[in-house]
Amino acid sequence: MDIQQIKQRFGIIGHSPLLNTALETASKVAPTDMNVLILGESGVGKESFSKIIHQLSGRKHAPFIAVNCGAIPEGTIDSELFGHEKGAFTGATDKRKGYFETVNGGTIFLDEVGELPLSTQARLLRILENGEFIKVGSSIVQKTDVRVVAATNRDLLERAKAGKFREDLYYRLATVPIRVPQLSERKDDVYLLFKRFAMDFAELHHSVLIDLDDEAQQMLANYSWPGNIRQLKNLTDQICVLEKGPVINAKTLSKYLPVSEPNLPMLLGKIEGTEGMSERDIFYKVLIDLRRDVNDLKKVVFGLLENNIGGTNPVPMPPVHVSPNNNIVPVQTPVYSDNINTNANNNLGGNSSVQQPIIIPHENDIEYEETMSIATDITESTLSLEAQEIEMIRKSLARNNGRRKKAAEELGISERTLYRKIKQYNLEQ
User: Are 109 and 149 a contacting pair, CB within 8 Å?
Assistant: First the structure.
């Protein structure tokens, strides 16, 4: 069966080369019993590919079941997949067959397979290796003949490095990987999908068939579509119900397109010493490192000031006065120095007696207020970060059962520094 016939049979819309490549791979692997891992963002239609693989295989007359692994609680997922014996756990009042037993001879689609607990991953690996499984609460080994098609929107190798997914299971599942392109990679297909959805909803709601003008079509194609095809389908449904049509312009369409979030700065690569740490702890670590940088910068600035004051041509300190709220602020007075801008003095006929003024901003100046505000923010954040640093050290020591060497490695600091911090913050256990 060629690609066009597959599209017609399964209602696939689009002519994107990436989509055609994915369909071609699915059609080639379908007649075999090889495990398939479907990769792609949420909403791109990964389940549709699992159904194509099943319907084009020799198991098409056998059962097919789709399981969302992320939607089943961790405490019951083993029972759902592999079944349980009576009395295996509280509430197990009867024997139960799991999906792998009921779908024997057919195909099981494990959506969001990256969310499986590690204990369940070990059971799944055994099924993929030799077709064997054991029910929860049983000691009897059972056999099953099930083809596994899995899907994920996560990077499973990255999760494997973080200890959250078995690397051997990944290579068992990804015998043949199929990547389904996101909608933003199929700009020419967006309008075709919109027309198809508009026809379906017009028939469903008994409403007028709507269309888009040229400008609205361009806007639709240029949108980022973070929710992919699912988002486009929902948007089309809204317009069919809420707008009279028959032609929608760009102004009307813009009301239904959420404003794209700005590109926020992100960290490239990995931060050394953060393996196994939560995102919150990593954030605190970055802030603490920033505090150290600020402290180092202050030492440099104060050092320069001390050297300048102790030099042969010191810069006189600006006059100050005390404000009503007891804050010491500089007075807007010219201060002269013999050692500033000597090159400019030489250009003025070599008259070294020419003195250049340094204007100290007054307390009411905008620049002065902004400077004082920044200084206040730095001071407050420094005090707050010290508390966060203490909390991070406590948590790390607790996670590592008081082993300071392990805690130092986790925090990304030397063991000597950790000892100093423990003594500084009186954290002796």
Answer: yes
Instruction: Decide: 202 and 238 in contact? Cβ < 8 Å.
Output: no
> Among residues 267, 363, 31, 37, which one has the least CA distance to residue 170?
37
How far apart, in whole angstroms, are the C-alpha atoms of residue 37 and residue 50? Answer: 9
* C-alpha–C-alpha distance, residues 131 and 147, integer Å: 10
Does the global pTM surpass 0.85? no
CA–CA distance, 96 with 86 (Å, rounded to integer): 8
Q: Which of 128, 132, 93 is nearest to 108 (CA)?
A: 128
Please give the single-letter amino acid code of residue 300. Answer: V
Tens digit of pLDDT per residue, the chain (429 long)? Answer: 789 999 999 999 999 999 999 999 999 999 999 999 999 999 999 999 999 999 999 999 999 999 999 999 888 999 999 999 988 888 888 888 999 999 999 999 999 999 999 999 999 999 999 999 999 999 999 999 999 999 999 999 999 999 999 999 999 999 999 999 999 999 999 999 999 999 999 999 888 899 999 999 999 999 999 999 999 999 999 999 998 878 999 999 999 988 754 444 444 445 555 555 556 566 666 777 777 777 777 777 666 666 655 554 544 545 544 445 444 444 444 444 444 444 444 444 444 444 444 444 444 455 545 555 555 555 555 556 677 788 888 888 888 888 888 888 888 888 888 888 888 888 775
- Say how far apart CA 58 and CA 41 lie, in whole Å: 29
Strands 132-134 vs 328-330: parallel, antiparallel or unpaired:
unpaired
Secondary structure class of 209 (helix, strand, coil): coil
* Dihedral sign (CA 155, 78, 110, 145): positive
What does the alpha-carbon distance between residue 61 and residue 225 come to, in Å, rounded to a whole number? 36
**Cα–Cα distance for residue pair 164/43, rounded to 1 Å:** 24
Q: Which is it for strands 64-68 and 107-111: parallel, antiparallel or unpaired? A: parallel
Q: Are strands 176-179 and 36-39 parallel, antiparallel or unpaired?
A: parallel
Q: What is the dihedral of CA 263, 228, 183, 22, to 10 degrees?
A: 130
Query: In 10 A of CB 307, how many CB atoms?
Result: 10
Q: Say how many residues make up the chain.
A: 429
Tell me the one-letter amino acid at 336: Y
Pairing of strands 247-248, 356-359: unpaired
Token pair of 277 as six digits:
């740490």
26 close to 2: Cβ distance less than 8 angstroms:
no
Give the DSSP letter of residue 87: T
